[in-house]
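It is worth pausing here to work through a concrete case rather than discussing structure prediction in the abstract. The textbook approach is simple: state the sequence, then state the predicted structure, then interpret. We follow exactly that order.
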Amino acid sequence: MIEPYLLEELAAFSETGTLAAVAEKLYVTQPSVTRGMQKLEQELGVHLFERTPNRITLTETGRMAAKQAADLLKANDDMVAAIRNFDRNQNRLRLRFTIPGPRLLFNEFFEGTDAGGNDTTDGIASDGRISLTPTLLSSDEAGTVLHTRNADLVISNENMAGGEVASAYLGTEKLYVNLDKFMYEASQPEVSFAQLKELSFIVLDDIGPWKGIIQKEIPQAKFLYQQQPDAFVEITQYSNFPYFSSSLSIHFDPSRAITDDDDRIPVPLSDPAAQMRVYANYLVEKEPLALPLIRRVREMWPRPDDPLSRNG
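Step two, the predicted structure:
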């Protein structure tokens, strides 16, 4: 078996063109490189170099051997990287979301844990082993990232179970509209989308499938979309525009918490489209890591009839 350092020296010679450059690149002496190339020729039983008093070059066989050496070295590096990535991902969950509300719940779940992953909660490792990606996925992307192994668990309003993907129901997210307390609708136990048709709303742009739902259910309304969460919060604090929240954002987003000095009142929407079932879709191979996390999240999920309380 040819020793890897000989292949490395041959590949380096093909790249640099001189023994001196190889020695400098690999941090060895030039005589050591010379002996190594002679040893490689002896082991292969072929001439790899044309030698003249002032120059050494590769033969045709040498050029072919150098390419094979470079390919073998790359294959070795790729193998090492693949094994290390596989080992690292065996004990890690990469989470993606298509809906913003559940992401708020998961953020609270990991609040206060240390970034190195030394803390655990009910046997669930902290964010050192479980990573949350902030950007939302589209529905089309959700299945793809699982099948291409670019995510291990996707939180979505779709049940994507099938083949190598399993799915578990987490809970139902309910939509609320925050209305000025002096509006007639604000005094009602619930309102319908139809009752909101003449209003203008401040809406956070990145709200996943909820965006399509409100546009479809209230086509006559005006939506003033805000891309920056900070700008959205500031406008909702210093204006009387109604805005939407959910049973998850009311509970887990401090910027949308109900306070005594708030002039808006969150009123639940009565339409079936205002309730969204949420699923955890995960790779079957990740089940030992996914199921304990799913159980804990279910315990934290707010009851559908009361956004300010939660189970557990």
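Step three, interpretation. The longest helix spans residues 60-90. The two ends are 61 Å apart (CA to CA).
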